[in-house]
Specification:
The chain is mostly helical and 208 residues long. Helix content is 56%, strand content 6%. The protein folds into two domains: 5-133, no CATH class; 135-208, no CATH class. Helix 6 links the parallel strand 1 (155-160) and strand 2. The chain is extended. The relative contact order is 0.10.
Amino acid sequence: MKLSKGVIVFVVILQAVLFLTHFFLYETWTFSSANARIPGPLWIKLVLGVLSATFIPASLLAFRYTNAFVRVVYRIAAVWAGLLSFLFIASVCSWMVLAVGLLAGLHPNFHRSVEALFAVALATGLYGVFNASWTRVTRTTVRLANLPDAWRGRKAALISDLHLGHVRNAGFLRRMVAKILNESRTQFLLPAICMTARPSTPFKRRSH
């Protein structure tokens, strides 16, 4: 897979941003407002170092290969990227809480604030992962003027933003179709199917 110069520059810049973001998380976790730096265990450094270098390689592999190993690596990297965004916001909020506390003449326990905000960030991120994987059917009644008699009383399933790729692939799409087919007299409306990567399972066209 040959990459253009522009893509390489973009990848390098993005990877640098990811490194700095993970370094910021580490420094936030180990900083102490009591001028006594909390030593970070070696395993935290190793884990954050590895995680900082997973998303871009996983994304590049996902656009080129479609095997079980790539799917597992990409899913781990994608979930961590989502959690990272919440942890970054929690880190920024931790420093803001410390700044406000110092300006108010208080001496807040910075590490306790970090622990609490990181816990909220992880809980929120994990809920987001669960919520995204929980497929729900929302039913609503739409009244349209001049609707042909053949369409009266029918059901239309609007499916959009499926984001098919290594996280959600052909198996997910088949489950969605099966769920909709359980509804009687249903027509399909597919306004947009976003491919986030090459499909891990080839789609086959069926003739009826």
